[in-house]
Write a structure and sequence with these properties.
The protein is α/β, with parallel strands linked by helices and 286 residues long. Helices cover 49% and strands 17% of the residues. About 2% of the residues have low confidence.
Length: 286
C-alpha cells in the first residue's frame, strides 16, 4: 500500500472522533514492529522520524525502510518528519518521499512562526505533502528538542484561528499540559483550554508527549478534538528494557534473538496505543 499524506488520515480521524497514533522509530526493528502491530489491529498509523534520527540513520536509509514497509503493508500509513526546526531539512525530507512534515516554530515570535510555517506549508503543499505546526511550547526533552518548564507556554486559544488561517497548515500541535520524555509527576491536562482551542481550530489537533499520560486523560482529550497522539518514549523504554532483560541470559549469543524479542515488546506497546486511540479496524474505512 503506498504512503499517504498524514492529512488524509487525520481528516478521517476528525470526522469519526478517534485519533491516529504517531510513533517515533529509530531503526528497522521498531519500524517493523509499528507496521506489524498496525496490521494486526487493522489501523492507520503515522511513522515519525526526528531530525536526530535522520542524522543518525540518514535520509537514504529512512526512505528505503519506509519504501520497503509500504511495499508490503496492508494498512495506510504516513511518513512524518517530526519536530523539524531547519526548513532546509524539511525541503530535503519532501524530496526524499516524506508525506508529512512538522515545522516546529514554537520558540519563535508569533509573527515569525506564522511567516516560516506558511512558507513551509506552501512548499509542502505543492508536493502534496501535509504540514503540522506547533503553537505554544511543550516542555521536556526528546532528541534535539528541549524546553524547560519555565520556557514552556500553553497554547493561547485566541491566537489559534489567525495562525491556522495565515499558515494554511493541515494540523496543529497544541500545548495543554503534556511534556516530551518522562514525567516527574502525573500530568494535568487543561481540558478547558483544549475545548476552547477546538472551537477556534478548523484543522485536526495533535497531542505531543503521549507517554505517561493516564489512559482516561487521553480518551478525554480525543473526545475533545485530539486527532493524533504522539508516542516515542514508551517505545524506547520497551525496546531497551527488553534488550537489558534478554542480555541477562548468558546463553543468548545471536543478536537476532535479542531483536526479535525487542520487536515483540515494541509491538505490544503499539497495539495498546492503537486501541487507546480508538484506531483499531479503521484502516479499511479510509
Amino acid at each position: 500500500m503506498p504512503l499517504v499524506p498524514a492529512a488524509k488520515l487525520l481528516q478521517h480521524a476528525q470526522e469519526n472522533r478517534y485519533a491516529v497514533p504517531g510513533f517515533n522509530f529509530h531503526n528497522m526493528v521498531d519500524l517493523q514492529a509499528i507496521i506489524s502491530a498496525a496490521e494486526s489491529e487493522e489501523a492507520p498509523v503515522i511513522l515519525m522520524a526526528t531530525e536526530d534520527t535522520i542524522n543518525f540513520v540518514g535520509f537514504d536509509y529512512v526512505q528505503g525502510l519506509a519504501a520497503a514497509a509500504a511495499k508490503g503493508a496492508s494498512v495506510p500509513f504516513a511518513l512524518h518528519l517530526d519536530h523539524g526546526r531547519n526548513p532546509d531539512n524539511l525541503v530535503k525530507g519532501i524530496r526524499y518521499g516524506f508525506t508529512s512534515v512538522m515545522f516546529d516554530g514554537s520558540r519563535l515570535a508569533f509573527d515569525e512562526n506564522i511567516r516560516l510555517t506558511g512558507w513551509v506549508a506552501d512548499v509542502a503543499h505543492r508536493a502534496g505533502v501535509s504540514v503540522e505546526a506547533e503553537l505554544g511550547q511543550i516542555p521536556g526533552h526528546e532528541d534535539n528538542v528541549s524546553v524547560s518548564e519555565q520556557e514552556a507556554g500553553l497554547t493561547d486559544p485566541a491566537t489559534v484561528a489567525e495562525f491556522v488561517e495565515k499558515t494554511g497548515v493541515d494540523s496543529l500541535a497544541v500545548a495543554i499540559g503534556t511534556a516530551h520524555g518522562l514525567y516527574k509527576r502525573e500530568p494535568k491536562l487543561d481540558f478547558d483550554r483544549l475545548e476552547a482551542i477546538r472551537k477556534e481550530a478548523s484543522v485536526p489537533l495533535v497531542l505531543h508527549g503521549g507517554t505517561g499520560v493516564p489512559d482516561e486523560a487521553v480518551k478525554k482529550a480525543i473526545s475533545l478534538g485530539i486527532c493524533k497522539l504522539n508516542v516515542g518514549t514508551d517505545l524506547r523504554l520497551a525496546y531497551m528494557g527488553s534488550l537489558r532483560q534478554t542480555l541477562e541470559d548468558p546463553g543468548v549469543h545471536d543478536p537476532r534473538v535479542l531483536l526479535r524479542i525487542a520487536r515483540e515488546a515494541v509491538m505490544d506497546v503499539v497495539r495498546g496505543k492503537i486501541r487507546l486511540c480508538g484506531a483499531s479496524h479503521k484502516a479499511g474505512m479510509i
